[in-house]
Amino acid sequence: MRDNENVVLEPCSADAPRMLLVPYKPEHVQVYHDWMADERIRELTCSERLTLEEEYENQVSWHKDSKKCTFIVMDADVQFEQPRMAGDVNIFTSLEETDDGQQALVAEVEVMIAEPASLRKGLATWALRGMMAYFLSIRPDTARFVAKVLDENGASLSLFARLGFTEFRRLPVFDEIHLCVDLISDAQAHQRLCSELANWSRRKYASEGADISHDGQPGMKIDQLCAECSTESPRHHG
């Protein structure tokens, strides 16, 4: 999705972890490809092992596809010299017919924290909060958010439950549980997500001149706050 191609989101709430959401760029592909070498990660994310060339092609495809939106989750903990890739958060959109014959926009959301050093910091929770709030701001016609989770993945089920998702379907043949937040029937959930963006500052991403650090992580530059963002975050990592 081109909408977020230069968007960086950073939580400015005092209780948020130090993190950034940045667009998926070519400089991120190598680390992402290395993550996908882990069979357990592929199993939990229902992903296939691709060649590095195929991963680069996928990055271009996601960038162009208006039905997909992805951010790379960057861990900006003070223990690191610079923000480093920790995982990703994605949305896939589709149209579903409602009972009255109308077309409703459904956004399937998923999150992955792949780096062991970045687990149990709250990154997945805040990545989902930021992604859903951002996506609703650019697609206010979104009718509901959906999550599809393996029934053995108790951590993910608990995560989505804490964010207000409720179970609406089980698919034993795929070992999946489907959960959702219905923005049409749940006015409070809709208002909560509309208000969530106040907890985030927005900047521009610039990859020109990005380098590769000693540990293989891509370097990055973040420009000043976008003009449309009126909240100055105390956690800017320039």
Automatic annotation (TrEMBL):
Signal peptide: none annotated. The keyword rRNA processing does not apply. One of its GO terms (molecular function) is N-acetyltransferase activity. It comes from the Eukaryota. InterPro entries: Acyl_CoA_acyltransferase, GNAT_dom, NAT9-like. The keyword NADP does not apply. Residues 18-166 form the N-acetyltransferase domain. Keywords: Acyltransferase, Transferase. Belongs to the acetyltransferase family. GNAT subfamily. This is N-acetyltransferase 9-like protein.
